[in-house]
Amino acid sequence: MATEFITRSSVITDHSSPARFIFSHIRRHPLYILGLTIGAFSNAALAAVIPAAAGTAFNAIINGNDLDTVAWMAVVIVASQTIRAVLQLIRNSSAEVFAQRIERDVRDELYANLLGKSMSFHDSQPVGEIMARVTNDVRELNLMMNPGVNLIVGSGMFLIMPVLFGPGVHPALILTPLLFVIAHVIAQYFFVRSLHPIAQKVRASFGHMNAHLAEAIDGLQVVKGTAQEEQEIVHFNRMTDEVSHWYIKQGDIEARYVPLLMLGLTFVGGFIHAAYLFYNGLINTGDVVTFIGLLYLFTFPVFTSLTAFSQVALGYASAKRILDIINEHTLLDENRGGYEGKMRGEITFENVAFGYLDGTEVMHDVSFTVRPGQTVAIVGQTGSGKTTITKLINRMYDVSTGRVLVDGIDVRDWNLAALRSQISVIEQDIFLFSRTIADNIQFGTPAATREQIEDAARKAQAHDFIQTFDDDYETVIGQRGVTLSGGQRQRLAIARAFMTNPPVLILDDSTSAIDSATEDHIQRAIWEAAKGRTTLLITHRLSQIRWADHIVVLRHGQVVAQGKHEDLLKTSDAYQRIFARYESPRQTKTTIEHATGD
């Protein structure tokens, strides 16, 4: 399987190679390909009318000053070029629409594929590198089609016209254009072969530069806070120098473009051959003019193919980079045929071990059970594996050994969409989209009414501060909610969770940035929301832990104690140390003495 969720799209493409991937997108637009091809052939054929008419006009003047024939040839040229202009418009319009649609289709396919990838895939991919592929590499495919393929098809038609019409002047005059075409094709083959690896380096270096840029901007507060602007400029300049280096290498190869030399030799050879036939009385002056005019048709493919084949090489390199992402296998699949029942909320960990990297485990032999409707607090020192537990429940990651069961069914046997849609997670690092407040609250339930949105906001104690904004619920917040305070962001995230009304609610230290006064209101809302559903609390706040039906204590990725708050204070040194760290010594002593009855 290539993705965690398979793309549901009418676009079916071949991912076996970049060439087949490109062709599978091209063949989806046969009418535009037909328009491009007919327009290109007509353009070249009507361009060949000019030297033929000019040759006839020369003969008319030389042989008897036949001005009527000259006038008719002028009419033929004007009429043919008018028709040519109309057909050119059709050709270029077809090529542009064709290229834009391919860019749209590839970007849609890639975006859907990225959404389907597992978190283990995204953890290993720099965001800037992904952005370079979704934006610039896909754009290169557009440019590959137009002007790239458009010019190649057009120049190909110009190549065959002298071969087709040259023998009409004299059979021997096929020799020069045929030799040029053969030599041109061979030269293009070696040109593309030498250009292809450089094009790969150009695209790769651009991706690396883009990745660093995105990372630096995302961490701009750290850069400024540590006064590292100059160092980052130096680092970025090195990357731009690398991009520049590979573009210059590409320019070096293009500067040694052999067909330019061959074109000059063809003109000379063709003229000598035509002059020889004229000297021997085998052709007339008009034939010489016609033949030389036909040879000049080679000018278009020679000068345009330099740009066209360079663009095709970049587009092919981009297609390979896009396919590298699409074909990247992940460790999860959506399991469409899996269990899809209504979740009761029983969660069981059976001897679970897990590591984010191969050979490095962060959890060892973890076992505990959460009964339906129970509130369980998971506590432990930083790095003990608390957040990892939440990611195994909704199958962001799969366990290395052991099992995670929901309602007695291994999470790997659940339909992934059915599993995740019934589990709501409010994480410590709140993510909000650059959309309206209402859009953020109803993100998991797009069909929600305004009344439902406001009710969820009230439960999360967010309604009052939302009304202080000029645009109320239609206020657009900045990326990640940077225009809001930490407490406001978390209240919106809690409101978003209330909207989905999930059987399982997981709060990963979700009230860490809320002041004590606000916490009292939110606390009541959380316990109200927890009624009738399974709730997992990851928190260091004693006020929340005391409410839990059951507490699981983690240390170094292992369960070291389980039970109720009062019992753990009596029996678990690890549990006591946790509160010694987060409470004042006097508060901890009073709490322990109260629990033990001393």
Would you give an account of this structure?
- The protein is of the alpha/beta class and 598 residues long.
- It has 3 domains: 95-326, ABC transporter type 1, transmembrane domain (ABC transporter transmembrane region fold, Up-down Bundle), CATH 1.20.1560.10; 344-422 and 504-513 and 534-598, Rossmann fold (3-Layer(aba) Sandwich); 428-501, 3-Layer(aba) Sandwich (Rossmann fold).
- The chain has helices spanning 18-26, 30-64, 67-116, 119-123, 127-169, 175-218, 220-225, 229-255, 259-279, 285-295, 299-326, 386-393, 416-421, 437-441, 450-459, 463-466, 486-500, 516-530, 542-545, 565-571, 573-582, 585-596, and strands spanning 347-354, 363-370, 375-380, 401-406, 409-410, 423-426, 504-508, 534-538, 550-555, 558-563.
- The strands form 2 sheets. A 6-stranded mixed beta sheet has the order 6-7-8-3-9-10, sandwiched between helices.
- Helix 18 links the parallel strand 7 (504-508) and strand 8.
- Helix 1 crosses helix 11, helix 2 packs parallel to helix 5 and helix 6 (175-218) packs antiparallel against helix 8.
- The protein is elongated and about 120 Å long.
